[in-house]
Structures are given as structure tokens and as C-alpha cells.
Specification:
The chain is of the alpha+beta class. The protein is about 35% helix and about 25% strand. Strands 1, 2, 3, 4, 5, 6, 7, 8, 9, 10, 11 and 12 form a twelve-stranded mixed sheet that branches. A five-stranded parallel sheet has the order 16-17-18-15-19, sandwiched between helices. A four-stranded antiparallel sheet has the order 14-13-21-20. Strand 11 and strand 12 form a beta hairpin. The chain is globular, with a radius of gyration of 29 Å.
């Protein structure tokens, strides 16, 4: 039985030997790109197209046709390839359509080694697109799956390839080579002898696994994504889980919406005919329509439950394997914490989940160094917002080697003294929190001067030659009760730090309610927009980059009664005193 996929839905593959059959209704170019765990293509040599139809494990047609066949032996693709994208493009030839919206919807069917259809996908909703990523064959936990994408590009094949990681010259060169390969050959003069037709050699089928063999889904393994180190593999695996959950839920919601829409259309059709509105036959027809809708929803739910079970099993093995910067505060790795020798790739800012399975949490990992400041919204719960900011600052500090990160605090009214106790009592702060208007102005002036001096050194191409008094470590500035204690001058300095600081190692963590800052009018709007908003209570304000779901964010706090923050910060302070006794 063939599974009809909707946008975003995935389906397991029975083996690694496949054939993708394309029916487009108009001549199209069929191609394949080979990508890493993030779908990035390493170069033009990772793209199969009519001008270069063969890659290891991949063969695409070398001609234009409305019916195309792509052959894949996934066991033979390079080991670093985790995603195989099936591409379709309209040919740049005279008389051909220029957008898929003017053509019949392309239909793709994936066949196994025994020739039986496994899954199909009709790419609907296209308009101005001239090239599409139709399907994605991707590796998860050692097994391969197919995902329906249907991502279109109005700029054609070159734009598609740029989005997958090729530079503009490389993408344009591939598109030009495709155009040359599919351009009709010039007519042969009538005086020339007719060309001798040589039948093409029969296609050589790739090595097949036993027909009908369905490989069981392997048990999940922590760190099975691509990457140079275990840390990078775990980071990429978490992002793979994030994407899989986003697309799985998108497919389920799309299937449910489709079932509801079809039910509405069928009921409208029944109501449109006065003779069919009443009576036993009408009631039976309505019951049948509702039964079809329930069957579609049940099938979608079964697929969703299967995928969620796989992701839940993966989360259960990945979470205990995460290093401290990626782990929750309750993890045993924080109790065995040691100051690292190298900074991590990323840090965990909290957890994300969706309403279909709220207990399945995906770590929100953000790459270091932070490109944006963090705005902890205190409108919901001011005290808890301060606790969240302290936990975030502690995590940033503890994730860096001794002497490579410093935390400063602005607490104008001294209202955060209790929450800041792990920092102040451990000695992890080099100086007490800045209080009052004078303290705010002095600390901001010092950090602003640091940004200026480092920028001057970078412009002079001497990044390490800064004055002796300038701390070369990354600086994290925690601001409580913003904008209390600020005036126009310090507001502008803070905006300057938010804009220019991340590039030279100064990062902001603001605890503020936007309503409290409205007296400054539009002056603070750019600051609000430039920072990443986090909430002290669960809130569905973050969106993923794939389908744009509203994800519920939950912050990371130490378990009630736990002394883990104080223990970790005491180790950080001790390591810094050993590293530089004169400064600390």
C-alpha cells in the first residue's frame, strides 16, 4: 500500500535501493543534491544534473522529459552525506513554462528495490516557483526516511542551490551547465548524412537488498549525527530532533486540516442539492463523509504516534549524554562539573515543546558566541525573571574556560540581592553589582570604552593589541529592573552595546518589562527587536525556522532547594583565582 504524503510528512524506507518516479505533465529537469546533516551542499560536485548525471549511488536522467526516473543506492553515497534532495526545475528553453504554477502539479512516487511503491507526494500550492526541492531522503539513527518538502524557488535552480550552501558563482555555473545540457541541438543540414542511432545501454540496476525486506528501526544512539566531535554530533542530533518534530507535527496538522476541508466540501455538495438534503440516503451520505474524515484523521494520528514514539525514545538516550552546557541543571553532569578547557559550540537556554506532545521536550541550543542579547521579560513574574537571568549568566560563565568570560551586574535599586546570592557569595563576580545612577553610568562607560578600543584594534588588524587595562575576556552584562536608574545617555550607551557588543565580546542579558520602557517611546523599539525574548513562565512565542510553529518555551532553573548554581560558581571562582591570582 502506498502512503500518500502531505507537506512535511515523513515515512520510513524499506531499504537503501530506491527509484523515484516523477510525473510532471511538462518536460522538467530532474536532479539530486547531496548534503550534510544540515542539508548543506559542499560544492558543485555534490549535485547530479543532466550535465553531470552520475554521483556515487545516484543517477539522474540526462534529458528533459515529463516523466523522469531517479535511481538511488543510499548505501553507496559518501559517508558524510545525511540528506539526499530530489530537485525539479523548469528548463530555460524557448517555449517552456517559466513557473510551476502554470503546469500540472508534479507527482513523485518512491519505489523500493522490488518495484513496489512505498510513498507518493503531489507538490501542490505552487505559483511563481521555477525550481523545487520535492523530496528529501535523510538518514536518522542509521536508517533512511523520505520526507515530502515541496520547497519552491522563484529564482530557479541557481537560487535553490545558493540556499543549500553553494556560493553565487558556483550555483550560477551549475545552472548554466544544466541549461547547456538540455538546450536543443542545432538542426542537421539536409545534405549531411543522417546520424546513426545507437541504442542506449540498458540501465544497470544498483545493488538491491532482498525484495520485500523491511529493516526494523534501529535503537536510537546518542551522537549518531554527523560532526567532528561528540559535542558537535550531539548538537546536530538535537537540531535534527527539533526539525523532525516540527515537520512531523506540520504533517499531522496538514492532514487533519485536509480531512476537515474535504468533509466540509462533501457536506456543502450534499446541501447544494435540495433533493439530497433530507431522508435516509442523505443521512447515510453524511455519515459516510464523516467516516472518511475520521479515517483520514486516524491514519494521520497513527503516523504521528509512530514518529513521536521514535523521537521520545531518541530523547531518552540523548538527554543523559549531553555535556553540561547542553544539559539541564538537574543533570548529574553538573554535579560532576569541571571548568572546561575549551568553550562549547552552544549553550542551552531552555526547552521547547508543542501541544500535541508537551512531555517531549527539545533543548533550545543557541550557538556561541551569542549573536543577539537576551531579553528576559519580567512582565509575567518579576522575581522569577531575575532567577532566569541569573541561571543564564551562570551557564554562560561556567561554559567558558577560566578567565575567558566575566559577568557584570547592574542592579540599580538592589532588588536582586537574593537572586544574585550564588554569584556574590561564591566570588564569581569580580566587583559588586552596580547600583544607583552613578554606578550604572560608570559600568556602562567602561564597557562602552572596551567596545571602542577592541573595534579600533580590529580595524587596525591587531586584534590582540589592546591597552593593558582592557579585559580580553568575553563580558556578560546582566541588567535588572531596566530601565530604572537609566537616563537618555545611559539608554543610548546600552543600545550601542546591544548593537556593537556581540561582535567584540560584550553580551547583554536584560530583565525588563516592555511596558515599563514605553515612556522612552520608539527609542527602545530597536533594542527590543534586536534581542531574543525569553519568558520566566511557559509561553508560546518562539517559532522554528522550518514551518514556523509557535513553540512553548520553558526556562531552565535549578531544582528547588538545589545548591548546584552555588557549587558550580564556586568552582569557577576558584579556577579563575588559580588562572590569574592578581586579577581575581
Amino acid at each position: 500500500m502506498t502512503t500518500e504524503l502531505v507537506h512535511g510528512q515523513n515515512h520510513p524506507l524499506p531499504g537503501t535501493t530506491l527509484e523515484v518516479r516523477v510525473s510532471a505533465g511538462t518536460p522538467v529537469v530532474a536532479g539530486v543534491s547531496l548534503g550534510d546533516g544540515q542539508g548543506r551542499v559542499s560544492g558543485p560536485g555534490s549535485v547530479a544534473h543532466p550535465g553531470a548525471p552520475r554521483l556515487p549511488g545516484i543517477e539522474v536522467p540526462a534529458r528533459l522529459a515529463a516523466e523522469q526516473r531517479v535511481i538511488a543506492d543510499l548505501a553507496a553515497v559518501p559517508a558524510e552525506v545525511d540528506r539526499v534532495h530530489v530537485l525539479l526545475a523548469l528548463p530555460p528553453v524557448a517555449g517552456a513554462p517559466t513557473r510551476f504554477g502554470a503546469c500540472p502539479a508534479p507527482h513523485l512516487t518512491v519505489h523500493g528495490s522490488d518495484g513496489a511503491p512505498v510513498a507518493s507526494f503531489t507538490v501542490t500550492g505552487l505559483s511563481s516557483e521555477a525550481a523545487i526541492v520535492a523530496l528529501e531522503l535523510y538518514r536518522r539513527q542509521g536508517a533512511w526516511k523520505v520526507r515530502a518538502l515541496g520547497q519552491g524557488y522563484a529564482g530557479g535552480l541557481a537560487e535553490l542551490l545558493r540556499d543549500q550552501g553553494l556560493g553565487r558563482p558556483e550555483a550560477d555555473a551549475v545552472a548554466a551547465r544544466v541549461a547547456d545540457a538540455v538546450r536543443p541541438a542545432p538542426a542537421v543540414p539536409s545534405t549531411a548524412p543522417p546520424p546513426v542511432a545507437t541504442p542506449p545501454p540498458p540501465p544497470v540496476p544498483p545493488t538491491a537488498s532482498p525484495a520485500g525486506t523491511v529493516r526494523p528501526t534501529p535503537a536510537p544512539v546518542a551522537g549518531d549525527a554527523s560532526g567532528w566531535s561528540m559535542e558537535e554530533r550531539l548538537h546536530n542530533q538535537v537540531w535534527g530532533m527539533f526539525e523532525d518534530l516540527a515537520r512531523t507535527i506540520a504533517a499531522y496538522r496538514s492532514a487533519v486540516d485536509f480531512a476537515e476541508s474535504r468533509l466540509g466540501q462533501e457536506l456543502d455538495t450534499l446541501l447544494a442539492d435540495p433533493r439530497a438534503r433530507v431522508g435516509p440516503a442523505a443521512e447515510a451520505a453524511r455519515d459516510q463523509a464523516r467516516a472518511r474524515q475520521a479515517e483520514l484523521v486516524d491514519r494521520a494520528r497513527a503516523v504521528l504516534d509512530r514518529d513521536l514514539a521514535q523521537l521520545t525514545a531518541e530523547a531518552e538516550v540523548v538527554e543523559p549524554a549531553l555535556p553540561p552546557p547542553y544539559a539541564g541543571w538537574e543533570s548529574p553532569v553538573w554535579h560532576g562539573y569541571r571548568v572546561p578547557a575549551e568553550p562549547p559550540m552552544a549553550v542551552r537556554l531552555g526547552d521547547l515543546h508543542l501541544p500535541e506532545r508537551p512531555e517531549l521536550r527539545i533543548p533550545l541550543l543557541v550557538r556561541l558566541p551569542l549573536e543577539r542579547g537576551l531579553w528576559v521579560d519580567s512582565a509575567q513574574d518579576r522575581r522569577r525573571a531575575v532567577d532566569v537571568a541569573v541561571a543564564l549568566a551562570a551557564r554562560l560563565l561556567a561554559s567558558h574556560p577560566a578567565g575567558e568570560c566575566a559577568v557584570h551586574v547592574i542592579d540599580p535599586a538592589g532588588s536582586a540581592a537574593t537572586a544574585l546570592a550564588p554569584f556574590t557569595d561564591s566570588g564569581a563576580l569580580r566587583e559588586p553589582p552596580a547600583t544607583g545612577a552613578a554606578g550604572v553610568a560608570a559600568l556602562l562607560a567602561r564597557l562602552t570604552e572596551r567596545v571602542d578600543l577592541v573595534q579600533m584594534a580590529l580595524r587596525a588588524d591587531v586584534p590582540f593589541e589592546v591597552p593593558p587595562g582592557v579585559d580580553p575576556a568575553r563580558q556578560v552584562l546582566v541588567v535588572n529592573d531596566f530601565p530604572y536608574g537609566f537616563d537618555d545617555r545611559t539608554i543610548n550607551q546600552l543600545r550601542y552595546l546591544a548593537d556593537e557588543g556581540p561582535q567584540v565580546g560584550v553580551h547583554l542579558v536584560l530583565v525588563a518589562a516592555r511596558e515599563d520602557a514605553r515612556e522612552y517611546g520608539p527609542l527602545l523599539d530597536p533594542l527590543w527587536r534586536s534581542m531574543m525574548r525569553l519568558t520566566p513562565q511557559p509561553d508560546d512565542h518562539l517559532a522554528d525556522p522550518w514551518v514556523g510553529h509557535a513553540w512553548t518555551y520553558e526556562p531552565l532553573l535549578a531544582p528547588p532547594g538545589s545548591a548546584v548554581l552555588s557549587q558550580v560558581l564556586r568552582q569557577v571562582a576558584a579556577a579563575r583565582r588559580t588562572y590569574d591570582p592578581g586579577r581575581y
